[in-house]
Amino acid sequence: MRIVLVGPPGAGKGTQAAVLAERLAIPHISTGDLFRANIAQGTELGKQVKSILSEGGLVPDEVTVAMAADRMARPDAQGGFLLDGFPRNISQAKALDGLLAESGHTLDAVLDLEIPEEEVVRRIAGRRTCRKDSSHTFHVQSRPPLRPGVCDVCGGELYQRDDDREETVRKRLSIYHEETEPIIGYYQEQGLVSTISAVASVEEVTRRAIEALPQRSRER
Ligand code: AMP
Question: What is the tally of structural domains in the chain?
Fold first, then answer.
Protein backbone atom coordinates (compact mmCIF):
# COMPACT_ATOMS: atom_id res chain seq x y z
CA MET A 1 0.00 0.00 0.00
CA ARG A 2 1.44 3.37 -1.06
CA ILE A 3 -0.05 6.32 0.77
CA VAL A 4 0.72 10.04 0.90
CA LEU A 5 -0.32 12.07 3.92
CA VAL A 6 -0.80 15.81 3.28
CA GLY A 7 -1.83 18.62 5.59
CA PRO A 8 -0.52 21.85 7.04
CA PRO A 9 2.11 21.81 9.77
CA GLY A 10 0.34 21.04 13.06
CA ALA A 11 -2.41 18.90 11.53
CA GLY A 12 -0.99 15.87 13.33
CA LYS A 13 0.62 14.24 10.28
CA GLY A 14 3.56 12.83 12.21
CA THR A 15 1.36 11.36 14.94
CA GLN A 16 -1.15 9.88 12.53
CA ALA A 17 1.55 8.61 10.19
CA ALA A 18 3.23 6.68 13.01
CA VAL A 19 -0.05 5.06 14.11
CA LEU A 20 -1.27 4.31 10.59
CA ALA A 21 2.06 2.89 9.44
CA GLU A 22 2.08 0.49 12.36
CA ARG A 23 -1.54 -0.57 11.73
CA LEU A 24 -0.89 -1.13 8.05
CA ALA A 25 2.54 -2.71 8.61
CA ILE A 26 4.32 -0.35 6.25
CA PRO A 27 7.24 2.01 7.00
CA HIS A 28 6.55 5.61 7.92
CA ILE A 29 8.76 7.78 5.74
CA SER A 30 8.99 11.37 6.93
CA THR A 31 11.35 13.64 5.01
CA GLY A 32 11.29 16.07 7.96
CA ASP A 33 12.44 13.26 10.31
CA LEU A 34 15.14 12.20 7.84
CA PHE A 35 16.45 15.77 7.65
CA ARG A 36 16.37 16.13 11.45
CA ALA A 37 18.23 12.81 11.87
CA ASN A 38 20.92 14.03 9.45
CA ILE A 39 21.22 17.30 11.36
CA ALA A 40 21.48 15.44 14.70
CA GLN A 41 24.20 13.17 13.29
CA GLY A 42 26.10 16.09 11.74
CA THR A 43 26.19 14.55 8.24
CA GLU A 44 27.05 16.62 5.14
CA LEU A 45 23.36 16.64 4.22
CA GLY A 46 22.51 17.75 7.75
CA LYS A 47 24.94 20.68 7.54
CA GLN A 48 23.52 21.65 4.16
CA VAL A 49 19.88 21.80 5.36
CA LYS A 50 20.17 22.91 9.00
CA SER A 51 19.51 26.63 8.49
CA ILE A 52 16.74 25.97 5.95
CA LEU A 53 14.85 23.88 8.50
CA SER A 54 15.30 26.31 11.37
CA GLU A 55 13.98 29.14 9.19
CA GLY A 56 11.00 27.08 8.03
CA GLY A 57 11.92 27.14 4.31
CA LEU A 58 11.83 24.22 1.87
CA VAL A 59 14.93 22.18 1.10
CA PRO A 60 15.68 22.22 -2.68
CA ASP A 61 13.81 19.56 -4.65
CA GLU A 62 16.90 17.72 -5.98
CA VAL A 63 18.18 17.15 -2.45
CA THR A 64 14.78 16.13 -1.07
CA VAL A 65 13.82 13.86 -3.94
CA ALA A 66 17.20 12.07 -3.89
CA MET A 67 16.91 11.46 -0.14
CA ALA A 68 13.29 10.25 -0.41
CA ALA A 69 14.13 8.00 -3.39
CA ASP A 70 16.97 6.45 -1.44
CA ARG A 71 14.70 5.72 1.52
CA MET A 72 11.92 4.29 -0.67
CA ALA A 73 14.42 1.97 -2.34
CA ARG A 74 15.26 0.22 0.95
CA PRO A 75 14.01 -3.38 1.35
CA ASP A 76 11.41 -2.59 4.03
CA ALA A 77 9.62 -0.21 1.65
CA GLN A 78 9.19 -2.63 -1.23
CA GLY A 79 5.67 -3.66 -0.20
CA GLY A 80 4.55 -0.08 0.39
CA PHE A 81 5.03 2.96 2.58
CA LEU A 82 3.34 5.94 4.10
CA LEU A 83 4.87 9.24 3.04
CA ASP A 84 4.66 12.12 5.51
CA GLY A 85 5.82 15.58 4.40
CA PHE A 86 6.73 14.43 0.90
CA PRO A 87 5.82 15.45 -1.77
CA ARG A 88 5.55 19.10 -0.77
CA ASN A 89 5.08 20.76 -4.16
CA ILE A 90 3.99 19.85 -7.67
CA SER A 91 7.51 19.21 -8.90
CA GLN A 92 8.14 16.70 -6.07
CA ALA A 93 4.75 15.07 -6.81
CA LYS A 94 5.78 14.62 -10.44
CA ALA A 95 9.18 13.27 -9.36
CA LEU A 96 7.39 10.77 -7.09
CA ASP A 97 5.16 9.67 -9.98
CA GLY A 98 8.32 9.10 -12.01
CA LEU A 99 9.96 7.04 -9.27
CA LEU A 100 6.85 4.93 -8.80
CA ALA A 101 6.49 4.39 -12.54
CA GLU A 102 10.08 3.10 -12.72
CA SER A 103 9.16 0.33 -10.30
CA GLY A 104 5.75 -0.29 -11.90
CA HIS A 105 3.74 1.09 -9.00
CA THR A 106 1.16 3.83 -8.40
CA LEU A 107 -0.16 5.54 -5.30
CA ASP A 108 -3.18 3.97 -3.62
CA ALA A 109 -4.43 6.93 -1.60
CA VAL A 110 -3.75 10.50 -0.54
CA LEU A 111 -5.05 11.45 2.89
CA ASP A 112 -5.53 15.18 3.31
CA LEU A 113 -5.74 16.31 6.95
CA GLU A 114 -7.73 19.53 7.25
CA ILE A 115 -7.48 21.97 10.15
CA PRO A 116 -8.25 25.69 10.72
CA GLU A 117 -5.27 28.04 10.84
CA GLU A 118 -5.78 29.31 14.46
CA GLU A 119 -5.80 25.69 15.66
CA VAL A 120 -2.51 25.06 13.82
CA VAL A 121 -0.80 27.98 15.57
CA ARG A 122 -2.17 26.89 18.98
CA ARG A 123 -1.05 23.31 18.46
CA ILE A 124 2.42 24.05 17.17
CA ALA A 125 3.36 26.80 19.61
CA GLY A 126 2.66 24.37 22.51
CA ARG A 127 4.17 21.30 20.84
CA ARG A 128 7.11 19.58 22.49
CA THR A 129 9.00 16.87 20.63
CA CYS A 130 11.12 14.01 21.95
CA ARG A 131 14.79 14.19 20.95
CA LYS A 132 15.04 10.41 20.76
CA ASP A 133 11.94 9.81 18.60
CA SER A 134 10.16 12.71 16.93
CA SER A 135 6.93 10.72 16.58
CA HIS A 136 6.63 11.12 20.38
CA THR A 137 5.02 14.54 20.67
CA PHE A 138 3.26 16.31 23.54
CA HIS A 139 1.43 19.58 24.06
CA VAL A 140 1.98 21.84 27.05
CA GLN A 141 -1.79 22.27 27.52
CA SER A 142 -3.72 19.54 25.80
CA ARG A 143 -1.29 16.61 26.17
CA PRO A 144 1.28 17.39 28.83
CA PRO A 145 3.87 14.74 29.66
CA LEU A 146 3.68 13.19 33.16
CA ARG A 147 7.03 14.80 34.04
CA PRO A 148 7.72 18.19 32.45
CA GLY A 149 10.42 17.98 29.79
CA VAL A 150 10.53 14.16 29.75
CA CYS A 151 8.98 11.85 27.15
CA ASP A 152 6.38 9.48 28.67
CA VAL A 153 7.12 6.84 26.06
CA CYS A 154 10.92 6.53 26.12
CA GLY A 155 12.28 8.98 28.71
CA GLY A 156 13.91 11.17 26.01
CA GLU A 157 14.32 14.90 26.49
CA LEU A 158 11.43 17.03 25.21
CA TYR A 159 12.25 20.23 23.34
CA GLN A 160 10.61 22.86 21.18
CA ARG A 161 11.65 22.53 17.55
CA ASP A 162 13.25 25.75 16.19
CA ASP A 163 10.71 25.75 13.42
CA ASP A 164 7.81 25.55 15.91
CA ARG A 165 8.18 29.21 16.99
CA GLU A 166 5.15 31.29 16.08
CA GLU A 167 6.74 33.46 13.37
CA THR A 168 8.27 30.38 11.74
CA VAL A 169 4.93 28.57 11.93
CA ARG A 170 3.28 31.46 10.04
CA LYS A 171 5.99 31.24 7.37
CA ARG A 172 5.56 27.46 7.09
CA LEU A 173 1.80 27.94 6.75
CA SER A 174 2.17 30.43 3.93
CA ILE A 175 4.59 28.07 2.14
CA TYR A 176 2.06 25.28 2.68
CA HIS A 177 -0.72 27.31 1.02
CA GLU A 178 1.45 28.43 -1.89
CA GLU A 179 3.51 25.34 -2.60
CA THR A 180 1.92 22.28 -1.05
CA GLU A 181 -1.83 22.80 -1.32
CA PRO A 182 -1.71 22.63 -5.14
CA ILE A 183 -0.68 18.96 -4.90
CA ILE A 184 -4.15 18.22 -3.48
CA GLY A 185 -5.71 19.36 -6.79
CA TYR A 186 -3.06 17.40 -8.68
CA TYR A 187 -4.00 14.19 -6.82
CA GLN A 188 -7.74 14.97 -6.95
CA GLU A 189 -7.47 14.75 -10.74
CA GLN A 190 -6.20 11.21 -10.21
CA GLY A 191 -9.15 10.45 -7.89
CA LEU A 192 -6.85 9.67 -4.96
CA VAL A 193 -7.76 12.24 -2.30
CA SER A 194 -9.78 11.74 0.88
CA THR A 195 -10.11 14.84 3.03
CA ILE A 196 -10.39 14.24 6.75
CA SER A 197 -11.05 16.80 9.48
CA ALA A 198 -8.10 16.65 11.87
CA VAL A 199 -9.89 18.50 14.66
CA ALA A 200 -10.65 15.49 16.87
CA SER A 201 -8.80 13.13 19.20
CA VAL A 202 -5.83 11.19 17.82
CA GLU A 203 -7.89 7.95 17.95
CA GLU A 204 -10.84 9.51 16.11
CA VAL A 205 -8.66 10.97 13.34
CA THR A 206 -6.99 7.54 12.94
CA ARG A 207 -10.43 5.93 12.67
CA ARG A 208 -11.46 8.44 9.99
CA ALA A 209 -8.22 7.87 8.11
CA ILE A 210 -8.54 4.07 8.10
CA GLU A 211 -12.15 4.35 6.98
CA ALA A 212 -11.10 6.61 4.11
CA LEU A 213 -8.53 4.13 2.76
CA PRO A 214 -9.38 1.81 -0.11
CA GLN A 215 -10.84 -1.46 1.25
CA ARG A 216 -7.86 -3.66 0.30
CA SER A 217 -5.43 -1.52 2.29
CA ARG A 218 -7.58 -1.86 5.42
CA GLU A 219 -7.40 -5.63 5.17
CA ARG A 220 -3.60 -5.73 5.42
P1 AMP B 1 8.15 18.43 8.77
O2 AMP B 1 8.70 17.62 9.88
O3 AMP B 1 7.47 17.61 7.71
O4 AMP B 1 7.31 19.60 9.23
O5 AMP B 1 9.42 19.07 8.01
C6 AMP B 1 10.30 19.94 8.68
C7 AMP B 1 11.10 20.75 7.67
O8 AMP B 1 11.89 19.88 6.85
C9 AMP B 1 10.29 21.58 6.69
O10 AMP B 1 9.88 22.84 7.23
C11 AMP B 1 11.30 21.75 5.55
O12 AMP B 1 12.30 22.70 5.90
C13 AMP B 1 11.97 20.38 5.52
N14 AMP B 1 11.25 19.44 4.64
C15 AMP B 1 10.58 18.31 5.02
N16 AMP B 1 10.05 17.69 3.97
C17 AMP B 1 10.38 18.45 2.88
C18 AMP B 1 10.10 18.34 1.49
N19 AMP B 1 9.37 17.33 0.99
N20 AMP B 1 10.60 19.30 0.66
C21 AMP B 1 11.35 20.32 1.14
N22 AMP B 1 11.63 20.49 2.44
C23 AMP B 1 11.16 19.58 3.32
Answer: 1
- The strand order across the sheet containing 28-30 reads 28-30, 81-84, 2-6, 109-114, 193-197
pTM higher than the cut 0.85: yes
Each residue's pLDDT tens digit, 62-94: 999 999 999 999 999 999 999 999 999 999 999
Distance 32 CA to ligand 1 centre (A): 4
Cβ–Cβ under 8 Å, residues 198 and 24: no
Question: In which domain, by residue range, is 178 found?
Answer: 2-218
Whether 49 and 103 have beta carbons less than 8 Å apart is answered as: no
- Please tell me the residue having the least CA distance from ligand 1 atom 6: 32
Rg, C-alpha atoms of the chain: 17
- The residue whose CB lies within 8 Å of the most ligand 1 atoms, and thus the one to mutate among 33, 59, 86, is 59
DSSP 3-state of 218: helix
Q: Name the residue among 7, 1, 3, 2 with its Cα closest to residue 184.
A: 7
Nearest to 168 by CA among 67, 61, 39, 55: 55
Model confidence over 152-208: pLDDT tens digits?
999 999 999 888 888 888 899 999 999 999 999 999 999 999 999 999 999 999 999
Instruction: Give the CATH number for residue 81.
Output: 3.40.50.300
Q: What is the DSSP letter of 162?
A: G
Cβ atoms of residues 176 and 193 within 8 Å: no
